[in-house]
Amino acid sequence: MIINRFRVLQYSNCKSSVFLILLLLFSFRIAVFSQSAQKLVSMAETEVQNSNYLSAVQYYEAALELNPRLTEVQFKLADALRNAHCFDRALTLYSSLADKQFEQYPLSVYYAAQLSKYFKNYKDALRYFKHFLTLSAQSSLYYKTALYELKVCNDIINSELNANFDIVLEDEAFNRAFFMYGLTQFDSLFYISGIPLNSESESGWSRLFTSQNTTATLKLIRMLDKYNVHVSDFCFLDTTVLLFSMGTVVHNKNVSMLYSTKYIDNEWTKPIALPPAINCVDCNVKHPSVMLFGGKKYLLFSSNMSGGYGEQDIWYAPTTENMYFGKPENAGSTINTAANEICPFYDNNYNKLYFSSEWHGSYGGFDIFESDFRLDYVGSVKNLGWGVNSSFNDLYFTKPDNDRRAFFTSNRDFEEVDSVKMWVNKIYSYQVPDILKTLMQNDTILAFEESIDNQLDAIIEKSKKAKEKEKSSRKINLYFEHDLPMLGDTTRYETLLNNYLSTQEVFTEQYLSYPFASEADQYEIEQFFKNDIKGGYEQLTNTIDSVKTVLEKGKKAEIFITAYTSKSGKLEYNNALAQRRADVVKHLLDNKFSTLQTAFSVVINTPVVQYSDKQLNEKTDIHEHYRYTTRSAYMRRVQVEILVK
To answer: For residue 138, what pLDDT is reported?
Structure first.
């Protein structure tokens, strides 16, 4: 028994020693693998800092071959794939992490939603966005974006996406490189930017191309190439000055600024950075465009400078031919949002601003939008529609004066490089409708016996008058709380406004208690308080300031006030309430124009009209019967129309 026991112990000790040796060897092997994997990850992160995402992908993949269980590396690989535009592989990785490791990597859920939207899988995007809301802090931009995207995806699912234009992929004269950026036209020459597949610059910087290789442009191309920088977009300030954005990496950080070069004696001068008024410290400035307004020239651009509404915003600054730039002004909350607004282009023929945004209900990524935009008026933002826009990124819209085509850049199609799919930017175009022809087709008033020339003259004159009337007439809405002002209340509108704004939290809380409420609607409430209630008063104040300037020069103005109420309640009560609201607004206008009493008159439209709603979707009729909904709130308003004669 003793011997047997000793043998058992001896065997046990021997087995333990062997096991210990194997364990040490295995641990050593893991340590070696981990050390190698960590070194590869470190190399990948260096590539990421230099924006070399494809190189980073290779290092991350090599690290995962050594240790496939490194979930943090899986997430970083997904990020690198997304930034390298390998969207299908990135979505696969994000989805896997979102389903299994969502608590550890909540952003995997967010990006799984965004990339699902890219591939028009709007129902999957909806599911991921809903899940993300349960994981993210409500104060974060990601949360607000996901909240907004819920509504957008729902709207897209319930709508029909029909292409509105025939889109053409431009030929090699424009798509001169593997990955294209912006373009602009001057005379008959197009300036185009892109990254060649076999770039002379190993770091993959973009290069400048032109549609015609003149001596001067070749010199400009060679000059910009030697700086080893990223040049993506350009515009002409005048016939001799070219403005462009130039980006580089400084201390592992992407930096972009605006530069100018001047054409003198068949030469382009060395690029000079625009002054600090435009190129502010610690911000990115890019995407220049020129706007003409009131006989003056303004520089439009995008930037994340302080004072904006989100990340990249659209800004404008007065400028002159001698390169003076005034203080930049933000284009305002109608245009700019909590997300990115970039690539402004101004059509000076029709006073329209075109820009790309991730917000405003985009179909996916960046969409191109338009707005009637002047310094004294900003119209609603309109999506250019499916076809021009896609579920991917649509950018760099431009419409040359002497070309019937509008151009834009999109990564809606992929190319395979070494069996890897990459969604790459290409330049597309579509035919701009003949507005004069459209006017002729829609006009039914002109007499048949008139000559074609007379018809054209009449249509042009009619169009001019309509445009002048639009410029001289400004319609603004002011909003009131439920049943306010009360009978006998002489409170000024500014006080009523501030009291209304202070109820946003209560308004939202009450709304979310309703049976039909969704968290996705919370964004609509935020926008209503910001853009409509507060924005309406700001728009009125700005408009009055500009109208005063005109009145001081001898013009006259007529102001029409129309008060609206909700449908609920008796007609007699509602008309009396509407009259009280109209009186409050009239008192406000009398004070604002106090020094110009003889230059304007106020007309209160009678009888006061009940609110007839064609502004919102018919499906939301049920919301009228609830006090705390934007549907009901839109009914309680006074419309002010200022007509300058």
So the answer is: 83
Q: By C-alpha distance, which of 410, 329, 339, 284 is closest to 140?
A: 339
- In DSSP notation, 472-507 reads HEEEEEEE--TT-SPTT----HHHHHHHHHTTHHHH
Average pLDDT, the chain: 81
Q: Are 170 and 428 in contact (CB under 8 A)?
A: yes
Encoding tokens for residue 261? Answer: 């070069």
DSSP β-bridge partners for residue 431: 405
- What is the C-alpha to C-alpha distance for residues 23 and 13, in angstroms, rounded to an integer? 15
pTM comes to 0.65
CA quadruple 482, 487, 491, 496: dihedral, nearest 10 = 0
612 has a pLDDT exceeding 50? no
- Note the pLDDT tens digit of each residue in 536-593: 999 898 888 888 888 888 888 888 899 988 777 788 888 899 999 999 999 999 888 8
Where does the pLDDT of residue 388 fall: very low under 50, low under 70, confident under 90, or very high at 90 and above? very high
- What pLDDT does residue 495 have? 94
List Cβ neighbours of 133 (8 Å cut-off, separation of 6 or more).
Answer: 143, 146, 147, 150, 519
Angle at 404 between CA 363 and CA 433, to 5 degrees: 60
Residue 457 has pLDDT above 60, yes or no: no
- Collect all residues with Cβ–Cβ distance below 8 Å to 498 and sequence separation of at least 6: none
d(CA 491, CA 477): 19
The mean pLDDT of 215-239, rounded to a whole number, is: 75
Q: Where are the alpha helices (DSSP H) in 309-444?
A: 435-442
What strand order describes the sheet that includes 557-563? 473-479, 637-644, 557-563, 600-604
